[in-house]
């Protein structure tokens, strides 16, 4: 449940998406790619993702090994969601 809580927070999935490539991103570049995220929210989410060992920071922000594994799972969930057809109310 802790992971789902973290993933459900605003901007978290977008940050993971923008870090999908192996290229490290600076804070400023990541903020630009996440159109409209405030610097305080981005800093908070990056700290939370770092504490969860999903994002690392050395010469820029990147997904950790666990973060890359999670991203692979999210891609499969996205593929499933593309075919999902919720029942229409009668």
CATH class designation: Mainly Alpha
- Taking all Cα atoms into account, the compactness measure Rg is 14 Å
Named CATH architecture:
Orthogonal Bundle
Main sheet makeup: 2 strands, antiparallel
Number of domains: 1
Protein name: Transcriptional regulator
Domain HTH hxlR-type: 1-89
GO molecular function: DNA binding
Organism: Amycolatopsis eburnea
What can you see in these coordinates?
It contains five helices and two strands. It starts with a helix and ends in a 7-residue tail after the last helix. The protein has helices at 2-7, 12-18, 27-33, 39-51, 65-83; strands spanning 55-57, 61-63. The protein has one domain: Orthogonal Bundle (Arc Repressor Mutant, subunit A). β1 and β2 (61-63) form a beta hairpin. The longest helix is centred in the last third of the chain and has 19 residues, at 65-83. With 90 residues, it is mainly α. InterPro entries: HTH_HxlR, WH-like_DNA-bd_sf, WH_DNA-bd_sf. This is Transcriptional regulator. One of its GO terms (molecular function) is DNA binding.
What's the structural blueprint in terms of helices and strands?
Layout: H1 2-7, H2 12-18, H3 27-33, H4 39-51, E1 55-57, E2 61-63, H5 65-83
Antiparallel strand pairs: 1-2
Keywords: DNA-binding, Transcription, Transcription regulation
Pfam family, one: HxlR
InterPro entries: HTH_HxlR, WH-like_DNA-bd_sf, WH_DNA-bd_sf
Please give a quick description of this structure.
It contains five helices and two strands, in the order H-H-H-H-E-E-H. By secondary structure, the chain is mostly helical. It is globular.
């Amino acid at each position: 449940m802790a992971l789902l809580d973290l993933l459900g927070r605003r901007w978290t999935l977008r940050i993971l998406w923008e870090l999908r490539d192996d290229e490290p991103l600076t804070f400023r570049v990541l903020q630009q790619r996440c159109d409209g995220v405030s610097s305080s929210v981005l800093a908070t989410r990056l700290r939370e993702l770092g504490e969860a060992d999903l994002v690392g920071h050395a010469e820029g922000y990147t997904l950790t090994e666990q973060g890359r594994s999670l991203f692979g799972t999210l891609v499969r969930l996205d593929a499933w969601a593309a075919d999902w057809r919720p029942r229409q109310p009668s």
